[in-house]
Amino acid sequence: MSTPRLIRPLRPLLQGQVPRAAPRAAATQLRTYASVEQPSAPSAAKASSANAPAAEEAAEESGKKNRVSRLPRALEALYLKPLRREAEYGVPTCDLQLRSYSARNLEFFCDFALRAAYYLNLPAFGPVPLPRLVERWTVPKSTFIFKKSQENFERITLRRLIQIKDGHPDNVQLWLAFLQKHAYYGVGMKANVWEFSKLDVAKEMDKSVDETAKLMEGKWDHLAYVEKKAEPEGKPREQLPTPEALEQFIAAERRRIAGGR
Amino acid sequence: MSMFRAKKLDLGCFTNVRILRDHSKRKAFEAAEPERQALRYIIRNTLLPARTRAIAQLQLTQMHCYTRPTQIRNRCILGGKGRGILRDFKMSRYNFRMQALEGNLPGVKKASW
């Protein structure tokens, strides 16, 4: 949790916002965000404080002890561990598995996914390192008579699991879509999503059937057995055979195949 | 069996006549698979009359040999070789080694343990 000392914020100095309200700070020390934590603090700090409460606390402590210049909070959060929401009930709603051959890409994208989950209000757990998948191949280096000298190749797939608990299904979908949009090279993703509904699922399904039935009413004509264009106007359409007739036909056919036996 | 061969070249990889033949066999098998499965079902279904099953057996044996799954053989996409193919990469062992050493196969490295 060390704050970057060398990066000095420019804005308060340039705009001269930090002024007479804090004369003791202005006298000898650097004018920084940390030194301007009065009621008249710039609104940017307030806005970012809503985003990063944990980072703010840590920063406030360090700011009181030794006043050091540092980045705005939202930016500083990028250098710290990703923030997390707390799960209230702990019901898993989404398992995201990330796979890659390179640990660097994988770690980076896990970090990205966790940060995205935080800002989408999703409690994320992980990344859990799952067992590596090791595939090995041994091939002769040259033609078959030189079987003695062979070469080994391997491909190690690294896996990480990120679990979302208590996520709203819409938010989970949004998160997955966001990750897919910003997919990182060399990292594959697969997700298991669970959705929960009320106990009387059957009633809801019945309701939805009624609704879709209305939508389907006009469409049945398109499923016609006979082509519509061919028949002239006013003539009744050719009917499908009745179930009884079909049964008779099938029985007759069976008899025919069996050779009249 | 030119009737199974496509009129236009429909392959992107290395081509020679053996690869083309294998490809047309794969397509023929794919097209005839439902028919084969239906006949196999009829042959194995003991509830059907014996005559029906015998007819199905005959029909199955009279189907073209290109429609049999056993005719399909994995071949190297880079050289057309028929032996020593690594299924994961669809390549013969020599081409696999060349590609792996060049670093063209993602994640494949020389192993030592």
UniProtKB/TrEMBL annotation, chain A:
Keyword Ribonucleoprotein attributed: yes
Domain Small ribosomal subunit protein uS10: 95-192
Family matches, as SMART domains: Ribosomal_S10
Stretches for region Disordered: 1-66
Pfam families: Ribosomal_S10
Ranges of biased composition (kind: Low complexity): 1-14, 37-56
Keyword Ribonucleoprotein: yes
Keywords: Ribonucleoprotein, Ribosomal protein
Family from the record: Belongs to the universal ribosomal protein uS10 family.
PANTHER family tied to this protein: 30S RIBOSOMAL PROTEIN S10 FAMILY MEMBER (PTHR11700)
UniProt-recorded name of the protein: Small ribosomal subunit protein uS10 domain-containing protein
Classification lineage: Eukaryota, Fungi, Dikarya, Ascomycota, Pezizomycotina
UniProtKB/TrEMBL annotation, chain B:
UniProt superkingdom: Eukaryota
Keywords of the record: Ribonucleoprotein, Ribosomal protein
Ribonucleoprotein keyword on record: yes
Alphabetized InterPro entries for the sequence: Ribosomal_uS14, Ribosomal_uS14_CS
PANTHER family documented for this protein: 30S RIBOSOMAL PROTEIN S14 (PTHR19836), SMALL RIBOSOMAL SUBUNIT PROTEIN US14M (PTHR19836:SF19)
NCBIfam families: PRK08881.1
Similarity comment: family membership: Belongs to the universal ribosomal protein uS14 family.
Protein name: Ribosomal protein S14
Organism whose genome encodes this protein: Remersonia thermophila
